[in-house]
Design brief:
By secondary structure, the chain is of the alpha+beta class. The chain has three helices and four strands, in the order E-E-H-E-E-H-H. Strands 2-1-3-4 form a four-stranded antiparallel β-sheet, covered by helices on one side. A hairpin with a 2-residue loop joins strand 1 and strand 2. It starts with 5 loop residues before the first strand and ends with a helix.
Length: about 110
Amino acid sequence: MFSTDPVVRVQDATIFQDHNSVLNNISFEIGKGEFVFLVGRTGSGKSSLLKTLYGDLPLRLGDTQVAGFNIREIKQREVPLLRRKIGIIFQDFQLFPDRTVGENVNFVMKATG
């Protein structure tokens, strides 16, 4: 059974890369347990949207809630908590090359509390 409260709620958001808007006036919700695909051509704004949702790009216009965090008002110190709550794994993994996977995971767990 799906929850009625969305995990992600985007309302009237415009996503920017530098000074250029890449997605305009978008709105959608994703509920707990929903499986969503994000598809589109290269340069269509997929990565910019994801970066906004996990706090890597600032949200300038619109309202967005992700896992209880207001993305427009999120503080930099809260971003790791958001990412941990939604389970972000970066494409390049951002690992220390001189450590094992276990050592990398252990480092992150200690660093983020």
